[in-house]
Amino acid sequence: MAHPLLTIRGLRVGVGRGVPVEIVRGVDLDVDGGEKVGIVGESGSGKTLSMLAVLGLLPTPALRVLGGSVRLGGVELLDLDEPHLRRVRGARIAMIYQDPMSSLNPLLRVRTQIVETLVAHGVDRRRARERTREVLSQVGLRDAARVEGAFPHELSGGMLQRVMIAMALSTQPEVLIADEPTTALDVTVQEQILSLVGELQAQNRMAVVWVTHDLGVVARLVDRVAVMYAGRVVEHASTPDLFARPQHPYTAALLASLPRPGTAHRATLRQIPGSPPDPARLGSGCPYLPRCPQGDQECRVAEPDLLDRGPGRASACWKPRDRWQG
Amino acid sequence: MAGVAVRGWDLVKTYRGTGGRPPVRALRGVSLEVPSGGTLGIVGESGCGKSTLARLLVGLEAPSRGGAEVDGVPVTTRAGDARLQLARRIQLVFQDPFSSLDPRRTVGRTLAEVLQVHRLGEGADGRRQRVTELLEMVALGTRFADRYPHELSGGQAQRVAVARALAVQPGVLVLDEPTSALDVSVRAELLNLLVGMQDRLGLAYVFISHDVSMIRHLSDRILVMYLGKVVEAGPYDAVLDRPLHPYTEALAAAVPVPDPGVDAERRRGRSVGAPVDLREPDRGCPYQPRCPLAEPVCREVDPDLGALPGGRAVACHVAVRQAGASGPS
Fold it and tell me: How many Å lie between the alpha carbon of B263 and the closest alpha carbon of chain A?
């Protein structure tokens, strides 16, 4: 079997200058070329920081990589210095964000921003101009000529997201990492962006890693899901498997807490008691134990690794699903 | 039959355009009724006017035309006793709980102050007693009285905001996107709390959200808004399962369902529109530039909200004609 395109192993990120507190605590993830993978988690689960670490974009020295490995097509990204990393970012792996203005310069016209990005990656200026027009119409901006000449503030939120996606795609990256890029958008605009990314991904055989808290977006867009809790991946499955038979009690609880098709009107939804653990005060056992209906003495002893639970599935839980109570 | 808790008629709100731009018509004639103890869900996307409507209902802003009353008492924006009395009948809970809590005050002090302003609770002891009751009502313990906002999680802060709204024992809560800022696992807690309090206290809710699944879960009736207008109204299940207005249909199908099979089924054969300019057309139906069903008449005449059997109503030339042809749904 060929190696995955992107391989993340034991990735750890810490916060604080002295003895760091680990907030990403050993993330493993493989992404194949042309595949759509979702990373789901709530705020503080470490999903965004893991991805920023992959691209070498952590705001150091407040946050820094403590260990692990990130290999893209065999190249260890964590060993690259900034100039080399900059060549990888954009050209081979690109990221889009919730706030498009975090990647756009408010003082430059859309055209200038995309052209300069391409020129920085060694494309000649005339070709860069053509490519800019091309990608803007590719992301469904009908009036590409007008959008090109516009400043960011002259465009709507949905249009800015498209411009950001166009900029990310302009260099034809092998991997696109998307960090909740549709969270601030209206649902009908989100629908357009999701279907656009699906089409572009299929056309360009690009891998997509989609970071989100929205299980609906996961159900619609991705092939495979990693669920994060307290800085680690706690479950890993194909999308249909995850929704049909979650293997980690946290995933099961998240799914049960949502009003889904078939939930009775005004019925009591399942609550998850308590709140996520403080990363500075993690004990030796499973970090989900205080909230877990399945937990017992066994779970206090050690934190479970991702354990194999059938083909393409893994769960960081000592209890296989068929031993769950209730 | 239950009484009417909130009534609004022909509510219009126009904001002056800035920098030479034309005026913004945030609300263009919205009427609504919320029965005591019932929930009216208001769903729509940015710019549909749903937050403006919330502000008019609680008297934070005055309508340009039309009016509203709560328990038969007119809504007013004028400071004074009438305003205090209005606040005792209807309260607004905002999307971001932290923005509505004073970071320098403990939860207990924030709640006690509301009681003091409204001269509720007998003395300091009476108020302390009542603060305890309120915290228990929203499933927070007495120990939360000594906490500051920064010591609260998002879900806890939202429950404090609900407790503060309940301090004056209102009959109506206007909830403006109350779950949007919360993590998924905490939303269930708030929805359960709202259902429980409604059953116990007989509260009426105006529940405003862009999240169709939350709206469906909590509402008895729904208004669907688009560019300042109600485009469809009716019982929650009829509106969401058998939408009449093409916008309601697009909205319901756009929301991703956390179930891959159901999501794929709902979307079968649907094409997703290109991005559109949300600027309101000069005349005709405001949805017409995006509408797959638009006919010549839609570019000329803005349809009124027409009543249909089954407690439903729709503002669409085509849907009204089709409903008329096929009988009541």
Answer: 7
